[in-house]
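2024-03-11 09:14:02 INFO worker-7 job=invfold-0412 stage=load source=structure_tokens
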């Protein structure tokens, strides 16, 4: 008999009733160090006082009116995102998948607008993950996600992540855009070399394509800069943001240059809930914190401290961990043992929450507000778990 909650998740038998900073507390009184953060979403941790206060106050005034009217909170957030990015304009939605759908529409509409309607194809990469809507499933490189949901939406192809020769060879007269994650999260915590991102900009410019970066997981300060592509010193034409943008509240955004958005006009895209006053207040408050002087520098320092602790593990525990990988506080380890074994041991024996990924990797996604003491606490659990698994394997 089917459960009342549709069984689309293999849920872990834990229920949380409250959180504070980087910690979660279960209904039976256990405390967990949350280095999963709702899959890189609770960027300020749990119950952040400024965020919870702002949401409560806004909810007491106004939550939703629709985009039939001006929304001052939305205008303020758009102005600030434009001021702190490459973008000239922003469309607001509710999720990462929606932000990717919007990005794809903007790119295709641009080519139509400039007189090249045949240019509809989007080149994506292997190991990519862009969402679970019908279009983003086709942009995602995992056939298992599409099984039983056919026919596949047309217009998407995949080349090897990091391979510029394959990328260049895939471009034809029907190509509209390139879509890439600067750091692949779900795909295994794979970091794009900065030279690769720079070369993608050059290819897009050479062939008249738009460059779309999916920063749903790696953006909003997670790498130590506001946007992950900033490390490469280049800019995309379109960027998809979500997850950490709302600090746990559902918010998505499509950031675009004036050129990329030149084909968009009233009636071509929309969202009932997107950009509502409550969501915009949440995102503006997150941005208040992330843009405070020293915040991103603190993220970068903490991430480098974490990396220095994590990087030696493959040599210390070669029977458990194959390599360490990641950027900023989007970190991971590729496991030799099944990644679920390490994840379970961390959770059950050491009260540390992590997230699985493809390529037998385990994602480590702490909130951006952690201190080095939290890193030390997590590393104690990780090292103890590796000792136990190595002993078991022997």
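2024-03-11 09:14:09 INFO worker-7 stage=emit residues=394
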């Amino acid at each position: 008999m089917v459960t009342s909650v549709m069984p689309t998740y293999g849920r872990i038998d834990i229920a949380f009733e409250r959180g504070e900073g980087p910690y979660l507390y279960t209904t039976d009184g256990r405390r967990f160090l949350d280095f999963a953060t709702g899959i890189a979403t609770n960027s300020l941790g749990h119950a952040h006082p400024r965020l919870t206060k702002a949401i409560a106050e806004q909810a007491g005034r106004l939550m939703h009116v629709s985009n039939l009217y001006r929304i001052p909170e939305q205008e303020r957030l758009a102005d600030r995102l434009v001021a702190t990015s490459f973008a000239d304009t922003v469309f607001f939605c509710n999720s990462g998948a929606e932000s990717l759908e919007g990005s794809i529409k903007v790119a295709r509409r641009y080519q139509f607008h400039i007189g090249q309607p045949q240019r509809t194809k989007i080149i994506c990469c292997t190991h990519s993950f862009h969402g679970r809507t019908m279009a983003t499933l086709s942009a995602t490189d995992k056939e298992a996600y599409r099984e039983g949901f056919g026919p596949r939406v047309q217009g998407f192809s995949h080349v090897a992540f990091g391979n510029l020769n394959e990328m260049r060879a895939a471009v034809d007269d029907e190509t509209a855009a390139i879509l890439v994650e600067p750091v692949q999260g779900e795909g295994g915590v794979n970091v794009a070399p900065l030279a690769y991102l720079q070369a993608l900009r050059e290819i897009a410019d050479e062939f008249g394509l738009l460059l779309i970066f999916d920063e749903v997981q790696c953006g909003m300060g997670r790498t130590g800069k506001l946007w992950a592509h900033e490390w490469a010193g280049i800019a995309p034409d379109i960027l998809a943001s979500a997850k950490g943008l709302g600090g746990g509240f559902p918010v998505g955004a499509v950031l675009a240059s004036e050129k990329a958005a030149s084909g968009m006009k009233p009636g071509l895209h929309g969202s009932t809930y997107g950009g509502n006053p409550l969501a915009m207040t949440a995102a503006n408050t997150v941005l208040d914190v992330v843009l405070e002087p020293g915040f991103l520098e603190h993220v970068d320092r903490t991430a480098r401290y974490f990396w220095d602790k994590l990087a030696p593990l493959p040599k210390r525990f070669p029977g458990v961990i194959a390599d360490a990988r990641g950027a900023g506080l989007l970190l991971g380890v590729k496991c030799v043992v099944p990644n679920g074994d390490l994840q379970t041991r961390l959770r059950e024996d050491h009260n540390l929450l992590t997230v699985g990924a493809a390529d037998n990797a385990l994602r480590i996604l702490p909130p951006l507000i952690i201190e080095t003491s939290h890193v030390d606490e997590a590393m104690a659990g990780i090292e103890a778990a590796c000792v136990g698994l190595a002993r078991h394997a022997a």
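2024-03-11 09:14:09 INFO worker-7 stage=report msg="The chain has a mean pLDDT of 97."
2024-03-11 09:14:10 INFO worker-7 job finished
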